[in-house]
Design goal:
The chain folds into 2 domains: about 70 residues, no CATH class; about 110 residues. Strands 1-2-3 form a 3-stranded parallel sheet, sandwiched between helices. The radius of gyration is 28 Å and the shape is flat. Strand 2, helix 7 and strand 3 form a beta-alpha-beta unit. The chain has 8 helices and 3 strands. The longest helix has about 40 residues. Helix 1 crosses helix 2 and helix 3 packs antiparallel against helix 4. It has about 190 residues and is mainly alpha-helical.
């Protein structure tokens, strides 16, 4: 920041902050209303700008359609491959295990049950899948849901356990924070159970 702007920001902190808050809105509305005011002052420029803008979005639309088509073809080809058969050929396949962390907060038990049912229907050896129900301690029914699901799916997976993210004062309640904590709790719990 230059000395000039430094002086302005320190001398007029409220006005400067308010101006900077208004700037994105002013800029956006100037562009949105530019076909109206621009047609009065620079009609040819605005006409060419709108024309080029439409051509640009037509190009972007076609490129989206083409890449979506290519992606769907690749997905269909990948679905035909027997990935488990390919994985069994790997040298250390018998050492591979999966840990599935299901973070949830006030999620209905039927949704969690559907997720676990779908997980139990896949082809990877289920005894090498470890399911972690990543619950929030502040949810009142968390322990009850975890116990019900753990008893229903006991013996299907390698292990199914629940971890509870503590309600830490001052912590922002976001998914990333919860997931990081659950991963740490999961590593501790699984290292004891495996």
């Amino acid at each position: 920041m230059t000395k000039f702007f430094g002086k302005i920001f320190t001398r007029y902190p409220v006005k400067t902050r308010r101006f900077l808050e208004l700037l994105p809105g002013i800029f956006s509305w100037t562009i949105i209303l530019s076909p109206i005011w621009g047609s009065l002052f620079a009609p040819y420029f605005i006409a060419y700008f709108i024309l080029f803008f439409d051509i640009y979005w037509l190009y972007k639309s076609f490129s989206l359609v083409i890449t979506s088509y290519i992606s769907s073809k690749k997905i269909k080809e990948a679905e035909k491959i027997d990935w488990l058969k390919s994985a069994r050929k790997l040298k250390n396949f018998n050492k591979v295990s999966h840990v599935v962390i299901l973070p949830n907060y006030t999620e209905a038990i039927y949704k969690l049950r559907e997720t676990l049912n779908a997980l139990s229907l896949q082809t990877f050896p289920k005894k090498r899948i470890y399911v972690v129900l990543a619950m929030e301690e502040r949810e009142t029914e968390a322990k009850e849901k975890a116990q019900i699901l753990a008893s229903e799916f006991k013996g299907i997976f390698g292990n199914i356990l629940a971890t509870y993210h503590p309600d830490i004062e001052g912590e922002v309640k976001v998914n990333l924070q919860t997931n990081l904590m659950q991963q740490k709790l999961c590593i501790k719990a699984l290292s004891r159970k495996m």
